[in-house]
């Protein structure tokens, strides 16, 4: 009932705690911060007074005593040249999904944007700042992935509790705990829906993925499904040095120049939006003359001309898989696959 | 040179530190965690051994001693019904922009997604978890904003250092430190570019903003510029209960039914994308018959049919303004405005 004697809006201060405990305010501060210069007896008296007054205890000190952080560390690898407007929105959505999955588990997320050319850091769990680590990036962040690969291989940790509490999106290293879209199934689904709609000369636009193994896997799924259906594969290789949209525009030009392609499975939505932009600009009938399927489920595909059929990874599942693997820990570095689905829009004829 | 006697990949453990300091491993743990049961002399011996071995000190304990967190707390208010795919991408971009501005200042961000119907918390600075607080939400998160409003009004803090270290995007309370797009200028810019392109009967589609004061300000800018040019304003009010896209579709229907409107300034891009979707579906010539300008600078507008002219707030500036206000602190609750610019695309005739 002690706290009812003051206004409910007036919060107790460390001076109130000091007065009740019979010590100075600086002793209260040091005692609650866990300073070694304060004796156990004094600290206990201060803690009792703080509890009596419902005084807000420093959360860091409290967590330090509890031995848990209630925090997930999330590192987002970015390219130094990216701006918030030019960056791939997929990574922003994935970051949001991870924060959401963490919130469901009552975890805050300690987010750090890092670049290949900057100082890299990932020892959040060992340093006691987080209970697990999620790293999100593109395989093109080569130096950063090497850093995290070495960090994970560096098993001379003080405690086995810090091993395995990490999960990675976009790593090119197969022996790390990766979470990745079911790219091969996506490639198969694209071919399946295009052939069911009557298309036969279906080209893959993208790369076969020396760096982007996500693209390689999509291409492999495409190849497997084409083979199963007795169809001849076609590769429209794109120039890796231009923007995704410009890669798509160039792929559209190549398809029109070839003259005998009636559908395109495009490695990612940003590239597919460039394809649609060029085809609509040239008056090509999509889906009548050419059908187009992308990959990613980007929001912009709902409003493109025409709206873009796409393979959509389950982003909510992706966030949950990353958080669960990082927090619950994993015994070994097996990867896990995020399910994908085909989203039918009007860039493909009705089946 | 001591550390060169072991492999560079083998990191020292707390047992190595204990051995060198001549104490038990548990003493090392407690000493480094700042436990009050360890004497100052023992702690100094352990710290010297840890430094000698380049042992990784618990970062929380180190920060506790330093008295700074190198962390910015970011609360994102969400609607419980939102999914990562359905949520307004603007907030995901703004979150990313805040993380980026924080990274520029060598700060990590402690991100917490919170809902109106969940437990709200914002005492990160007082609890020693962060040096400042940024809250991002929509004015429709009514209960959450009331919580943060009371939190800010609760000035009986222990230390004046914790006052003013917060900044807010989307608060409906004018006496909080808000950061907001220069909405009125945006409304004026839209009218200016539409009239320069020859449109005269320009309607505003949206609400006049009892809840969404960002919309009210955009409407006020529209009204002021229309008045300056001697043009009669028109309001196409939207039904607040449907999705933004459907609000836009309904606004397009209303404009076609009216028959004498030749341009629309639409309160936000998602609504404007719904307008374009309906108009292109009905074969209306945009920009020939009707010109359309949105507001937000959403990426999807680059690929819509036709690409959407829009008022784009400078998102990088928004993130920097929020971070600077929260970290540097502010003496009073003045708001600050994020600059906007007109992005010309083909939903408006050439001027």
From TrEMBL, chains A, B:
Residues 12-66 form the HTH lacI-type domain. It comes from the Bacteria. Gene3D superfamilies: 3.40.50.2300, lambda repressor-like DNA-binding domains (1.10.260.40). This is HTH-type transcriptional repressor. It comes from Alteripontixanthobacter maritimus. Keywords: DNA-binding, Transcription, Transcription regulation. It holds the Pfam family LacI. CDD domains: HTH_LacI. GO terms for molecular function: DNA-binding transcription factor activity; transcription cis-regulatory region binding. SUPFAM superfamilies: lambda repressor-like DNA-binding domains, Periplasmic binding protein-like I. PROSITE patterns: HTH_LACI_2 (PS50932).
């Amino acid at each position: 009932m002690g706290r009812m004697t003051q206004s409910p809006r007036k919060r107790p201060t460390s001076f109130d705690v000091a007065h009740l405990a019979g010590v100075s305010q600086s002793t209260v501060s040091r005692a609650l911060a866990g300073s070694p210069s304060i004796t156990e007896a004094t600290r206990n008296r201060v803690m009792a007074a703080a509890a009596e007054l419902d005084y807000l205890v420093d959360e860091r000190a409290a967590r330090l005593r509890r031995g848990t952080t209630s925090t997930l560390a999330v590192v987002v690898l970015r390219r130094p040249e990216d701006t918030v407007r030019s960056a791939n929105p997929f990574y922003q959505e994935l970051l949001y999904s991870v924060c959401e999955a963490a919130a469901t588990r009552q975890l805050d997320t300690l987010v750090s944007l890092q670049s290949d050319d900057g100082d890299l850091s990932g020892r959040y769990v060992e340093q006691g700042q987080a209970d697990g680590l999620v790293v999100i990036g593109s395989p093109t962040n080569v130096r950063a992935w090497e850093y995290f690969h070495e960090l994970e291989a560096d098993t001379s940790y003080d405690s086995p509790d810090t091993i395995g509490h990490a999960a990675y999106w976009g790593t090119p290293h197969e022996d790390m705990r990766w979470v990745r879209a079911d790219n091969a199934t996506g490639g198969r689904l694209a071919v399946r829906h295009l052939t069911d709609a009557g298309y036969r000369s279906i080209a893959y636009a993208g790369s076969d993925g020396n760096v982007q193994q996500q693209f390689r896997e999509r291409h492999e799924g495409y190849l497997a499904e084409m083979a199963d259906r007795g169809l001849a594969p076609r590769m429209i290789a794109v120039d890796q040095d231009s923007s995704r949209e410009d890669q798509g525009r160039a792929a559209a030009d190549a398809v029109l120049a070839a003259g005998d392609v009636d559908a395109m499975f495009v490695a990612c939505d940003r590239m597919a939006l460039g394809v649609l932009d060029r085809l609509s600009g040239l008056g090509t009938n999509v889906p009548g003359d050419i059908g187009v399927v992308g990959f990613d489920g980007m929001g912009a595909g709902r409003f493109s001309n025409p709206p873009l059929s796409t393979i959509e990874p389950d982003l909510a599942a992706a966030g949950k898989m990353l958080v669960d693997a990082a927090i619950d820990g994993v015994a070994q570095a097996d990867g896990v696959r995020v399910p994908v689905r085909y989203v039918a829009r009007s860039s493909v004829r009705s089946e």
